[in-house]
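Standup notes, structure subgroup. Blocker cleared on the zinc ion input:
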Amino acid sequence: MKLQINLKRIIDNSYIISIGAKLTGVAKELATRNEFSKYFIITDSNVKPLYGDNFYKALRLSRNKVYLLSVPAGEKSKTRKTKEQLENKLLKLKADRNSLIIALGGGMVGDLVGFVAATLLRGIPFIQIPTSLLSQVDSSIGGKVAVDHPLGKNLIGAFYQPKKVYIDITTLKTLPRREFRNGMAEVIKYAAILDSKLFSYLEKSHSMIINHSSQNILHPSSFIHLIHRCCELKKMIVEKDERETGLRQILNFGHTIGHAVESLSGYKLSHGEAVSIGMAIEANISTALGMLKQSEVERLIQLLRLYELPTEIPSRMNSNKIIELTYHDKKIQKGNVRYTLLEKIGNAVPRISVPKNILQRSLSK
Ligand SMILES: NC(=O)c1ccc[n+]([C@@H]2O[C@H](COP(=O)([O-])OP(=O)(O)OC[C@H]3O[C@@H](n4cnc5c(N)ncnc54)[C@H](O)[C@@H]3O)[C@@H](O)[C@H]2O)c1
Ligand SMILES: [Zn+2]
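Run returned:
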């Protein structure tokens, strides 16, 4: 005998990204939401004193049940252990499905807290308030949430969309310069794969953009434009391919080589630095395959350098080891390493197999 369980349904996971929001305004808006009985703000030890404490106070002005939890800053907190600790605290504080979880911080907080929200009581509503450039243009959008495992990054996770994303660009004022550059690598990636106009804008405006952190000057309108465009590009991709079965793979440009280089460096290279090197190499691979003009590779490399990002493999790294490591990437299917490559600035093609000799040649250039 057989029974069919019919579960076909239309799921509406739509949500708003509000760019230019102010944290105090966000607290006021959230306080009016009567559907939430409790608020759990979860942040990290760097962001807590900068924004967490004030955000908590602002929400507490009008709501009683507000809790502020913090985890140590850094990727080392993105683990099952920290997730368990947060779950224990949330359950003790009687979090329920009428609670709202607020992820306040960079991508580490967003990924970890989003995953906590996804599994606690089979799903609690959560919102993202990304405070790093990388999280504002990339990780807070798209619903990928995860923790790391000793065998690799983001190996345990889910797709779980936030109810809303609030981006307060003024938080970038306190972002350390290296973290800013990290985010710029992903911004340059968007431009390289999808938007030649954005690419030219980044070329033209580099001194204004790069100097913001050293001089503590933020040009809000330009940053809103920049972040808005990146969010729009990511939105476009995620809407077409929420679960990364096709188109979303173009976001992996620079990441196949990038992940390998990041891991071989023992994570001394930051993600953005590794992806920058990855983009330079993968652009060279595109040229070696006859897809991309040499002058376009040079343009990309020059832009990365303008933003103080590395474009060469550290000399101590062995190129065969890098190639070997690309086979361990979790996105590899049937042992086939597929690359997203460039046709020209602003145009990428996903899922291209690259012969080993071309890889070796491009890596030792
Ligand atoms: N889910 C996705 O789609 C996706 C996409 C890309 C990256 N990620 C993940 O995102 C993480 C990286 O994100 P990240 O670079 O934001 O890392 P992060 O969250 O570790 O933040 C970087 C550092 O900046 C600090 N910081 C954050 N905001 C600050 C501010 N306004 N002022 C001062 N300091 C601030 C943090 O405390 C931390 O020390 C990785 O775990 C990566 O796997 C996820
Ligand atoms: Zn990335």
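Discussed briefly. Residues 71 and 77 are 7 Å apart (CA to CA).
Next: hand off to the docking folks.
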